[in-house]
Write a structure and sequence with these properties.
261 residues, alpha/beta, 2 domains, 3-stranded parallel β-sheet, 8 helices, 10 strands, globular, DUF4130, DNA_repair_put
Length: 261
Amino acid sequence: MYLYTYDGSFEGLLTVVFEAFERKAWPTAIEQEHQAQPLLIGETIAVTTDEQKAGRVWRGLQQRLSEEATQSLFHTYLWEHTGFEMLFFEYVRLVFVSAGNVEGNYTASCVLQVQQISKQVHREKHRMEAFVRFQKTADGLFYATVSPDFNVLPLIIRHFEKRYADQRWAIYDTKRHYGALYDLNATSLVSLEASALPPKQQGILAPDTLDEEEKRYQQLWQVYFDHVNIPERKNPKLHLRHIPKRYWKYLSEKQPRFLSN
């Protein structure tokens, strides 16, 4: 039995793949080092992330798989559910030991699972792109918080870079404690302690941190939403299908009204 531990990064997981093939010691479990429990029977192999080794594995996958399939593997890493590392490894091992293309080999359970997971992650990506709402702070930064089911922040950055190229913005994942900060030139990933985050109410910034124009904009949007809402045509089931309740915390029209001065 072999337990491989790594630092939790994508490059670290690829390095695990490299080490397993190098040693010809197939893992029975792969865990992040801060979560791993020592084995009573077997060997624990602590893997140090090596970008060169990770790069060799990734290039090998790109040579054998379509762009869609490699993207699905990355989505599996972002899925984060228990056991995703072993599922990732099983798929990659199948790729490297098979003579032909494995993408349509649905008799292998890992192939079908990776495809299904990729669809889930892709769906969450599009919902985040649709439901993220920026709020302008007093210092001119457009700020939004998210807490997606899957780690889709790396997938939505390009969308917001293109859409808001002329604005400084930040999107912070409160569930994973890191965010993306765009400074008009480039986007960088940042991590903050919880105490350093702006005060918020259900993902909406506290009124005293907002730019005055932002407060008026939110009031105007809430009034507009109330007026276009036709009570006679209200369909709660359809509404929830298109906008699940767990996304309401991002939407201005679902927040408590600001009090007028």
